[in-house]
Write a structure and sequence with these properties.
Blueprint: E1 13-16, E2 19-21, E3 34-42, E4 51-58, E5 74-79, E6 85-88, E7 92-101, E8 113-120, E9 124-131, E10 133-137, E11 140-148, E12 156-166, E13 169-182
Parallel strand pairs: 6-13
Antiparallel strand pairs: 1-2, 3-4, 5-7, 7-11, 8-9, 8-12, 10-11, 12-13
Amino acid sequence: MSNANVFTGLVPQQLSKGVYYVDVWMSGATPGQRYKDVWQGVTFQPGYDQTDFIQFFDINQNYYTNNSKSINDYVVTTYGLNNNDTLQTDELIRIYADTRVNYTLKSPKTNFGLEYRLSMNNVIEIIPWTPCNSAIIDGCAKSFLDLDTSWLLSNQNYQITFRINELGTRRIIAEKLNFKIVDKLYPQDY
């Protein structure tokens, strides 16, 4: 029934200063239904202001019984090396790669394997597909690789490409990390 009041006169409970809630058991709700939540007469300074707050929420499938694994689209956020950086020979850089579901901050639900490859001038494959290292850092799973520039040719452009292995598929991730190597500069004595 559209635009009908389902619950009225609920008494808010205070969780903390400025944070209130109501408990509602909606056992008859069907996934896909949309409800409007109206908080009437909310005041921040009694006697001076009063307003209504309206928000909408959708009923979703039960997370615990309908959390099926599926193939997702992912992005990788890297740090440790900025895109289009210029590096010198004889550097050792740790590059972290955080994988997340596209358009969210959520980590993948399924177990996945992150691989990388290094190519020179977008043509020559220097390091073929290689698994990234994994470690638990500050209680979070992290993927990383160590880049040693001592054996790379100077005055060349390099690119790191990432690929994810999930549920039997291997997919290349659109984000690429580009950098250039230059000779290490030594101060000259005059």
